[in-house]
Amino acid sequence: MSAAPTAPPPPHASLQDQARTWFESLRDRLCAEFEAIEDAQAGGDAGRFVRTKWDRPTQDGSPGGGGVMSVMRGKVFEKVGVNVSTVAGEFSPEMRARIPGADVDPRFWASGVSLVAHMCSPLVPAAHFNTRMLVTARGWFGGGGDLTPMQRDSAEALADAADFHASFRAACNRHDPAYYPKYKEWCDRYFFLPHRNEPRGAGGIFFDHLDSGDLAADFAFVRDAGLAFLDVFPRIVRRRMAVPWTVEQREHQLIRRGRYVEFNLIHDAGTLFGFKTGGNIEAILMSLPPEVRWP
Amino acid sequence: MSAAPTAPPPPHASLQDQARTWFESLRDRLCAEFEAIEDAQAGGDAGRFVRTKWDRPTQDGSPGGGGVMSVMRGKVFEKVGVNVSTVAGEFSPEMRARIPGADVDPRFWASGVSLVAHMCSPLVPAAHFNTRMLVTARGWFGGGGDLTPMQRDSAEALADAADFHASFRAACNRHDPAYYPKYKEWCDRYFFLPHRNEPRGAGGIFFDHLDSGDLAADFAFVRDAGLAFLDVFPRIVRRRMAVPWTVEQREHQLIRRGRYVEFNLIHDAGTLFGFKTGGNIEAILMSLPPEVRWP
Question: Is B128 labeled as catalytic in the residue annotation?
């Protein structure tokens, strides 16, 4: 009922349109690349993305933003979701203590792109990528990308993981030599299942609360992280997608996907954040694999 | 390193052997009944329970108890697990504040039986049942049973749910007319997915921290709850298992199982309790369905 306390907006507030435009254009490029992969492998049976818009409901009917889910179910990509969302509102009292700047002013703005790919072939790794910009009384970027090979110790899986890391390492090193070791380690720590005492996959990078003081440099790094993923993951998919696989490998993939579900539902902070801020449930849980086994 | 503080044991401590024996004999009766159902439906292809013993590891190598998993993968029961466990140890400092009596003495003893049945036919409901006795400086019983029909609003599903509730209502009413309404409501509240705003299934009963002051009466109620489940669930299975079903119904079942997974991994206190007390991970996650879809 009372007016929200005011605080000077962080410099990130001036970047809102550009950030949103970047995340949406990266989404378009990722979707186009994935559809081209479908065309190359499946010809007339190629999958296509289907887009669904959603609005974020607010209690008082004020504009809360929303997003667009893009989902493709194809012959190479068993299920891939690429979500963009741009939302604004006020954090609940519970969240205010936990989000930088939200103790000063509960209002927030957030925009980002988020991708999860579950592949038909057990020889093609699953992948996750996201980047986002948050604006409260402070502003920052977060995101990362990580790879989940299914035949974890095979030479092919190790080679894929090495290439994936090399791409992100190069992107990081163009900005700050401290980034890659720090963000790789953060990723390893984050994507870990303590109840299984095992990593979710082969890692990648993970970063949050990035605000170096140089807004343009931070935004450039975030863009480069996106381009690194756009370069390396399609390359990995293309070189593995036509390799024949066995039913035993498929069964193993479905079991490994169970670990993915366990991580996302038990541990993933992004999933829990989505639930608590009234995110779109279908968009949040689009990360879950299409078919899973706990035999 | 220091000796644990001592507190007078609750009367439940004298019941440990009897409680354990009851839970194990109920396990035997449930397994025998389920194998008889397999025989009736599948003849020579009938499933059989496989038992696996596990020991609870302790940091100092002292005896921590353990359990036995009984799992059957059959033609009627796609995957059914019946676990018994009897464990003892000390609660971690984190847990001590949350468990009755553990603030006085961190040592605990717990024994129970836990069952989850996922069925081949989408026309047969999934079921969950468990009962347990806990002993700290206090002692109590907990447990319950609930049914998860897959075709939720069909006449058959409603009839199954009505029978399931009637059986538990009768068991409750033999002990205290206040039990059924209270424990039914507790069950509805517990087995609810707030992120979907929907119940997990058709409910049943749920109770915890039962210590009326009359130990013999409480134990008799717990036994009757077990007998109620042993009576009603096999009856429901037998009358539905031979009904032909469609691939659409099966697909719907696999999607509904996704909700089951979401509940167990996001919300279920028993799952989280198991993780935090060094329970056997395979036994805890045996509740997860064998095949699941998030299309």
Answer: yes
